[in-house]
Amino acid sequence: MKGPELRQSFAMQQKQKMVPKMMLAGEMMMLPLEELEMKLERLLEENPFLEFEERAFCFACGRPLEKYFDFCPNCGRILRSDAGYYLEDPASFSEKRSFKELLEEEILSCVELDAEELKLLEIILANLDEEGFLRLDQRRLAFHLRVSEDRLREVIDKIRAEGFVGFAAKDTLEFVLLQCINKG
């Protein structure tokens, strides 16, 4: 009578593995601002080796600023204006706008686009899902738009270069990877 046979199997498996820093970054990006501030304060209290240093930085290019300037010396974006603010229509705050409308407005305030690029931006925004990801393959989208895939990527890269690093990412993983690559 033979006993049980032992076999060794070498099968290749592909698994995505998130490093702890990426998991922490993803977790912190999902927190509301108040919870994030409380969590950071708690971490500062628990660990005496951590230090909090508030620094000014440009929202457009992300570079740190030594002083508080009226404009960024790196990219030229206006950071502060002494002009008084007034509202044309206070009721405009009560109307709800979609995140796509808000994103388009923010992009157009930072990025100069020609007519063709503006049309591509509007179509890209229309194809974003409810989470803000472009799940449609860029090749397929370029084919439907009758533009080259390179031209579509050129517009996306132009927008990403102006500070919208995760724009048109296909999923959370690509979004986080783009953020990490941008940070170096």
Structure write-up:
- With 184 residues, this protein is mostly helical.
- The protein has two domains: 55-95, no CATH class; 97-184, Arc Repressor Mutant, subunit A.
- The protein is built from seven helices and two strands; from the N terminus they run ααββααααα.
- The chain has a two-stranded antiparallel sheet with strand order 1-2.
- β1 (56-57) and β2 form a beta hairpin.
- α5 (138-145) packs across α6.
- It is flat and about 80 Å long.
- The protein starts with 19 loop residues before the first helix and ends with a helix.
- The model is unreliable at 81-85 (pLDDT under 50).
Q: How much helix is in the residues?
A: 40-55%
Radius of gyration: 23 Å
- State the shape: flat
- Widest beta sheet: strand line-up: 1-2
CATH topology term of the largest domain: Arc Repressor Mutant, subunit A
- CATH level 1 class label of the largest domain: Mainly Alpha
End-to-end Cα distance, whole Å, is 63 Å
Quaternary assembly: single chain
Main beta-sheet annotation = 2 strands, antiparallel
**What's the helix-strand series?**
HHEEHHHHH
What is the count of distinct domains? 2
Overall residue-averaged pLDDT value: 80
> Which range does the strand content fall in?
under 5%
Question: Which secondary structure elements does this structure contain, and how are they paired or packed?
Answer:
Blueprint: H1 20-30, H2 33-46, E1 56-57, E2 64-65, H3 99-110, H4 115-126, H5 138-145, H6 149-161, H7 172-183
In short:
The chain has 184 residues and is mainly α.
List keywords for this structure.
Arc Repressor Mutant, subunit A; flat; 7 helices; two-stranded antiparallel ribbon; 184 residues; 2 strands; mainly alpha
